[in-house]
Amino acid sequence: MSDLLRFAALTPAEQDLALREVARCLDRLTARLAFGLIAATALLFSFHGIRFAARIWGLS
Question: What's the rounded mean pLDDT across residues 50-60?
Answer without folding.
Answer: 74
